[in-house]
Write a structure and sequence with these properties.
globular; alpha/beta; six-stranded parallel β-sheet; single chain
Length: 303
């Protein structure tokens, strides 16, 4: 689509704005050339500093064209005050989550690089070394491999002796309620995330997060303050981080969650993303879209 848009903009004589949303790996020259159209706009929007560095280094997008606009969370939908207890109760019943037990939530498409196998490995270690800890882990996400990867994970859970503690929930239509249920949210991706929206949404719901220390996800977490970070692929570090949250008193988890939500309110709201995007169009068109947008926001929609 970007190639078609580029041709159309040239013919029409209007500016082209592109946004680099994903990792878009380029392991060979032809793929890099194909990707290059996303770096050819009059303005190129990177969704995180991680992506901005790649655009500057690999595609030589200069500061005159490069704009970094982090993605945002809908702070009205992902808010502790917007999720009813009934919604949480309904999901807990659907997933057979025992009452009054800490829930470890792992959202993400079921694919190897998201880190579900690493999570099961870490939980197996916890079950062996800390059998007194009570917990239930819910893995949310659909299998993109026709069920093969999900079956592998089920077998891994059985071998680790944690099957009774694991719930494979599949697709979830109510992520705010799922996150509200959790005492922590995991995002231990083995590859760098371009941004990591799940991490920001969990923090918007005032939940401690555990992330891998790379990519866009770590840029949204202050290690030890709004969440915890681990070395990518290190199951032992992940196990220790999970134990740290489980061992923490409720007041400490609440304190970390509150700081996490405030960080989202300060830097990662949908409204901030929209305002910054409109400001890019203002640059090119000589308009004043962004101020009009800000003026139209009601107090209820502002961060």
């Amino acid at each position: 689509p970007a190639w078609a848009a580029r041709l159309a903009c040239r013919r029409a004589g209007v500016p082209l704005v592109t946004t680099w949303h994903g990792d878009h790996a380029a392991r060979f020259g032809a793929k890099k050339l194909y990707n290059a159209v996303l770096a050819s706009g009059d303005r190129v929007i990177a969704i995180s500093p991680h992506i901005a560095r790649r655009l500057a280094g690999e595609y030589h997008v200069g500061p005159d064209r490069l704009r970094t606009i982090p993605r945002g969370a809908d702070i009205r939908q992902f808010s502790p005050d917007s999720v009813s207890g009934q919604r949480v109760h309904d999901l807990a019943e659907q997933w057979r989550v025992p009452p009054d037990i800490p829930v470890i939530l792992m959202p993400g498409r079921l694919t190897a690089w998201k880190g579900q196998a690493l999570v099961l490995q870490a939980l197996g270690q916890i079950a062996t070394t800390r059998p007194e800890l009570r917990w239930c882990c819910v893995l949310i996400g659909s299998d993109s491999q026709g069920g093969q990867y999900a079956r592998t994970l089920v077998e891994q859970a059985a071998q680790a002796g944690v099957s009774e503690h694991i719930r494979f929930a599949g697709h979830c239509d109510d992520m705010p309620a799922a996150m509200a249920m959790a005492c922590m949210v995991l995002a231990p991706s083995l590859r760098p995330e371009p941004f990591g929206r799940v991490v920001v949404e969990a923090q918007a719901l005032a939940k401690p997060v555990i992330v891998a220390r790379h990519g866009g996800a770590i840029e949204t977490v202050q290690d030890g303050e709004t969440g915890l970070a681990i070395t990518p692929g290190n199951a032992t570090e992940l196990a220790h981080a999970i134990e740290t949250v489980l061992d923490s008193p409720e007041e400490a988890r609440t304190f970390m969650g509150d700081k996490a939500r405030q960080a989202v309110l300060d830097h990662y709201t949908t409204q901030a993303m929209q305002y910054a995007t409109l400001a890019v169009y203002d640059e090119l068109l000589g308009t004043a879209l962004a101020p009009h947008f800000a003026a139209a926001l009601t107090p209820e929609t502002q961060p």
